[in-house]
Amino acid sequence: MDWKGIRVSPCNLCPRECGAKRDEGGRGFCGMDERIYLARAALHMWEEPCISGTQGSGTVFFSGCNLRCVYCQNYEIAAGERGQQVSQERLSEIFLELQGLGAANINLVTPDHYVVQVARAVLTARENGLKVPVVYNGSGYEKVEAIRGLKGIVDIFLTDFKYMDARLAEKYSNAADYPQVAGAALKEMVLAVGEPAFGREGMMQRGVIVRHLLLPGHKKNAKAVLDYVYGTYKDSVYISLLNQYTPLGRLKDNPGWKELGRKVTKREYEEVVDYAIGLGVENAFIQEGDTARESFIPEFDYQGVWKNGSGMEVGLWKE
């Protein structure tokens, strides 16, 4: 199964190029074979205002991840510990069901390793009446070829830009090439969707939003990300500065606990926000209040995966 030069097996979908024979049951670096696994499909209110709005974003959480950051806030699904198998056809139906619930958009969370099936499911859904924008919500660690293949399929890229420091990228995400890979992917995203465009009530219809999650003690990295993103794209992209990093208990056994075992302080975050303002950033989202709480992490309870709400254990994948 391939899509415009990228293929599921032997897998070359992401920069890892692990070569896993996923069509034979082999699992890639992402932890997944070629089958699609979902943990949740529901209206989600916790994205940026122009994505969630008052209606909610029709958010589909995919299981598995090609980055696997040690501090991952969605570890249960990133590590493939939770997920129910669905067909490509069922995925297309889910998109239409979310639209029927009033979703402002279809928000694909960590879809990288399913990009071929997702692209085809979107096209099928559009043939059957999908009208709302499609949001690609990823880690930034994507191949240029994959992003290029999504032109005309994805309307909005809601992408992370985690590191400009290769040392941190290696330490926390086992991806020393992250700065170069994310930079090239971001360029392709901007080329794919163009300048930001908004519809009624300020809801984004097209464009790129670049997220940066501030990690405790790493203001220098955050400022370097801002220098690069704003210095390169100015107002062609929106920037979202996140202070919601939550130190989870499982990190206590990780060498990174010394640095990552606390929340970001108000002073740290304000310094980064002030730095962005000093650069001239105007198209930005910032967070206020205490967002570093586990209550902001959704329940991965398979809501919306099955049309009638039944069969909650059908297709559940476990080791």
Précis, in short:
This protein is an alpha/beta fold.
Layout: helices, strands, pairs:
Blueprint: E1 2-3, E2 6-7, E3 36-44, H1 49-52, E4 57-62, H2 75-78, E5 84-86, H3 88-100, E6 106-109, H4 115-127, E7 134-138, H5 144-149, E8 156-160, H6 166-173, H7 178-193, E9 197-198, E10 204-213, H8 219-233, E11 238-242, H9 257-260, H10 266-279, E12 284-286
Parallel strand pairs: 4-6, 6-7, 7-8, 8-10, 10-11, 11-12
Antiparallel strand pairs: 1-2, 3-4, 3-5, 9-10
Overall description:
- The protein is 30% helix and 18% strand.
- The chain has helices at 49-52, 75-78, 88-100, 115-127, 144-149, 166-173, 178-193, 219-233, 257-260, 266-279, and strands spanning 2-3, 6-7, 36-44, 57-62, 84-86, 106-109, 134-138, 156-160, 197-198, 204-213, 238-242, 284-286.
- Strands 3, 4, 5, 6, 7, 8, 9, 10, 11 and 12 form a ten-stranded mixed sheet that branches. It has a two-stranded antiparallel ribbon with strand order 1-2.
- α3 crosses α4 (115-127).
- The longest helix is centred in the middle third of the chain and has 16 residues, at 178-193.
